[in-house]
Structure formats: C-alpha cells, structure tokens
Design brief:
By secondary structure, this protein is mainly β. It has strands spanning about 1-5, 10-15, 20-25, 35-40, 45-50, 55-60, 65-70, 75-80, 90-95, 100, 105-110. Helix content is about 0%, strand content about 55%.
Length: about 110
C-alpha cells in the first residue's frame, strides 16, 4: 500500500514562491508516477502537473512557465516549485499517484 505525504504549503504574497514536497512510502518496488492536483473552495479538483515513472512531465496550461515539477533522483519524492504565485492559485494542493492514491493535502494561500 502506498502512502503520500505532502509538505511545504503556507501563506505567501502575490508574486512570491513556495515549494511543495511529496514523499511516497509503503511497499514500493519501483519508481511510480506522481503528480499534483489542487482544489479551490467551491471548485472541482484539477490537475496541476504530473511526472511519469519515466520522467515525462505534463502541466496544466494555467501553470506553464510558473510551476515546475521535479523528482528527486531515483526516489519517489517529488517537488512542485511554484513561482509568480497569484491569488487564484489559492487552494489545497494534493499529491497523487496512480490516479486513486491521494495525500492529505497542503494549503496554499496567496494574498493580493
């Protein structure tokens, strides 16, 4: 069973940066696909960025050029570097793997 634990959320002013981390634990024999989703109040959860087990990266259009997803070499630890944050980026950010495994979420709040 795989468990995902996020960290790194917080409060930041518009234009600032945050880095989120997600570590997978459990019975894991290989590098697993991982990604980030977010859910703002009153909205559906949406994809932010994903990284496959082979390193292929996908971004939502609204974060291209501002957010970067990366993986620690050889480990099931991924990061989401978020730059040029906007108030509309305020949401709970969730780590995900295999579409059905979710972390507990970490709050990101961007003040204007």
């Amino acid at each position: 069973q795989v468990h995902l634990v996020e960290s790194g959320g917080g409060l930041v002013q518009a234009g600032g940066s945050l880095r989120l981390s997600c570590a997978a634990s459990g019975t894991i024999l290989n590098i697993i696909p991982m990604g980030w989703y977010r859910q703002a109040p009153g909205k559906e959860r949406e994809l932010v960025a994903t990284i496959s087990s082979g390193g292929r990266i996908n971004y939502a259009d609204f974060v291209k050029g501002r957010f970067t997803i990366s993986r620690e070499n050889g480990k099931n630890v991924v990061y989401l570097q978020m730059n040029s944050l906007k108030p509309e980026d305020t949401a709970v950010y969730y780590c995900n793997s295999y579409s059905t495994i979710w972390g507990q979420g970490t709050q990101v709040t961007v003040s204007s």
